[in-house]
């Protein structure tokens, strides 16, 4: 039986043999894919801790485009990794056809870790890509799964490098090809294959990154977003209708509740508009990679909380009119509260905020993920 | 005799590799890797329910089956077909055809979920483009670019072959005249 299977496997391996495959090709692809995964991990951790800070108290509000760039890079590098991952897996495919599949315990453990690495990487890239389309065809929560799988992947990457280090070192540098190495008809050389993989990554980035980087907008064929569209030329992730706030946001009796140590004040839209307003060009940047600069005008939040006697470096709890939703309540660390550009925005691009952009008032802060720029404000509580 | 073979087989199976002191950094990297994997694996159940974990395990297994069992074998089938199709073409032209198909396949793989996602999209500023049209236009551009490149490459190589033939003919006649 074993012999029969071995013969079959060898038969398949012979049929699938390609002269393009080599350990050197695998190492070259690994040299590209490894850093790409690390960049995604680093930028992903940055985004994760902005949303779930835990005990971290250090937040960057400058440059104002910091999150726009880190998340733009996260998505762009992630997308560019797709052809690289396929190429890397293709280059080692014959490993699957070796017989026996498990030689000893050590080999078995290594194969299991590779299976985990490969499957986690495939799932991570797939759900990451499809999440940017705002489509969730999986039975688990995206953000948490994407985060924990990232740890599995980066751990597997370190383990994989540790196991393969002698082979990687041996093929790290280019070696002279043996003279007279001929190429069978219709095939391509290793360099041609690498160039094709590189071109695939380049084309993918070129046709999708226009949602994050304005100068690529003319080539934006396959990105889920387009710059400059949507109400007031800014895209919308969650509409007022989706958030079920239409009635509450349009209520003429709306007032923003501000509280601090028992002191409380309520400001109508007219009263907020009568306060000294400031205006700033700030990007709104989403975890899904798209971003858009816009002109925001509103009350600086540190001035607003000063009206109830709270200091500028306060921790705030900001609540939306939304009846439910994961981001209905947002905590604003002091770094954002004291920033002069953080505001309760009332206007966008010279007009009163559109309902879908958070009318009557929303938060806009420099360097924060879009999901934390709470729309349809209800209250601002100073926690301390 | 049989028992001895079994014993040595088992010993062989459970034998772990030996490490020298020089390999300590490698071991440290491996340990760091195991730590990272542990963080992820033990972190997942802190936020995912059992049914969600089972769903994730299904996705992980399905990704392996889809990739190793379908995608890679299909790519090989395509490769065999291409080799036949591009037989007789210059190696450069064959590489251009393969590159164009690889780019097209990758873009299609990324673009097709857009079409499905569009059916469930909830507002107008997400997925607002006609991605099917984009895909068709992209393929048309790709086929055109590849066809033009292949034609140019083939013409150049035909010309080079003809020039070589003429030169060798001239050389031949010069030799002929020099050595009656």
Automatic annotation (TrEMBL), chain A:
Residue span, Oxidoreductase molybdopterin-binding domain: 253-382
Transmembrane segments: 25-51, 71-93, 114-136, 148-172, 193-217
InterPro entries according to UniProt: Mopterin_OxRdtase_euk, OxRdtase_Mopterin-bd_dom, OxRdtase_Mopterin-bd_sf
Superkingdom assignment: Bacteria
Keyword tags: Membrane, Transmembrane, Transmembrane helix
SUPFAM superfamilies: Oxidoreductase molybdopterin-binding domain
Gene3D superfamilies xref list: Oxidoreductase, molybdopterin-binding domain
Protein known as: Oxidoreductase molybdopterin-binding domain-containing protein
TrEMBL record, chain B:
UniProt KW keywords: Membrane, Transmembrane, Transmembrane helix
Organism in which the protein naturally occurs: Arthrobacter russicus
Source superkingdom: Bacteria
TM regions (residue ranges): 53-74, 95-115, 131-153
Keyword Membrane attributed: yes
Protein name as it appears in the record: Uncharacterized protein
């Amino acid at each position: 039986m074993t012999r029969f299977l071995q013969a079959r496997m060898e038969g398949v391996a012979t049929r699938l043999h390609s002269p393009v495959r080599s350990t050197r090709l695998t190492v070259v692809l690994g040299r590209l894919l490894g850093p790409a995964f690390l960049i995604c991990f680093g930028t992903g951790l940055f985004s994760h801790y902005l949303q779930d800070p835990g005990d971290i108290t250090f937040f960057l509000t400058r440059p104002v485009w910091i999150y726009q760039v880190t998340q733009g890079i996260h998505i762009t590098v992630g997308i560019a990794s797709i052809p690289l991952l396929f190429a890397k897996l293709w280059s080692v495919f014959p490993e699957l056809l070796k017989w026996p599949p498990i030689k000893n315990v050590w080999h078995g453990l290594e194969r299991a870790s590779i299976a985990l690495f490969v499957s986690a990487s495939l799932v991570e890239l797939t759900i990451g890509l499809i999440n940017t389309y705002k489509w969730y065809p999986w039975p688990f929560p995206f953000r948490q799964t994407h985060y924990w799988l990232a740890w599995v992947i980066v751990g597997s990457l370190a383990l994989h490098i540790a196991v393969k280090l002698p082979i990687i070192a041996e093929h790290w540098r280019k070696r002279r090809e043996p003279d007279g190495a001929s190429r069978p008809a219709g095939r391509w050389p290793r360099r041609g294959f690498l160039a094709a993989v590189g071109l695939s990554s380049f084309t993918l980035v070129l046709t999708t990154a226009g949602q994050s980087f304005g100068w690529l907008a003319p080539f934006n064929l396959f990105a889920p977003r387009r710059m400059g569209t949507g109400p007031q030329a800014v895209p919308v992730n969650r509409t007022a209708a989706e958030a079920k706030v239409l009635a509450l946001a349009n209520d003429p009796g709306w007032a923003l509740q501000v509280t601090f140590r028992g002191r409380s004040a309520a400001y109508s839209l007219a009263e907020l508009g009568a306060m000294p307003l400031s205006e700033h060009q700030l990007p709104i940047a989403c975890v899904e990679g798209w971003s858009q600069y816009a002109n925001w005008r509103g009350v600086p939040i540190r001035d607003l909380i000063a009206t109830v006697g709270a200091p500028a470096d306060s921790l705030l709890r900001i609540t939306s009119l939304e009846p439910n939703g994961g981001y209905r309540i947002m905590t604003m660390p002091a770094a954002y509260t004291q920033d002069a550009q953080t505001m309760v925005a009332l206007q966008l691009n010279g007009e009163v905020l559109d309902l879908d952009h958070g009318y009557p008032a929303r938060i806009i802060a420099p360097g924060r993920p879009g999901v934390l720029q709470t729309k349809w404000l209800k209250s601002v509580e100073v926690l301390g | 005799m049989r028992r001895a073979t079994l014993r040595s087989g088992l010993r062989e199976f459970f034998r772990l590799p030996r490490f020298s002191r020089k390999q300590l950094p490698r071991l440290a990297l491996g340990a760091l890797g195991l730590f990272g994997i542990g963080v992820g694996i033990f972190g997942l159940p802190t936020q995912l329910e059992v049914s969600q974990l089972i769903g994730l395990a299904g996705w992980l297994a399905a990704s392996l089956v889809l990739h190793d069992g379908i995608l890679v074998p299909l790519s090989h089938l395509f490769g065999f077909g291409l080799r036949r199709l591009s037989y007789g073409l210059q190696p450069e032209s064959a590489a251009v055809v393969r590159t164009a198909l690889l780019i097209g396949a990758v873009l299609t793989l990324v673009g097709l979920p857009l079409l499905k996602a569009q059916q469930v999209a909830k507002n107008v500023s997400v997925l607002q483009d006609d991605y099917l049209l984009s895909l068709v236009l992209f393929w048309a551009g790709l086929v055109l670019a590849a066809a033009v490149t292949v034609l140019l490459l083939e013409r150049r190589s035909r010309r080079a072959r003809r020039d070589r033939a003429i030169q060798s003919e001239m050389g031949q006649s010069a030799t002929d005249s020099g050595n009656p």
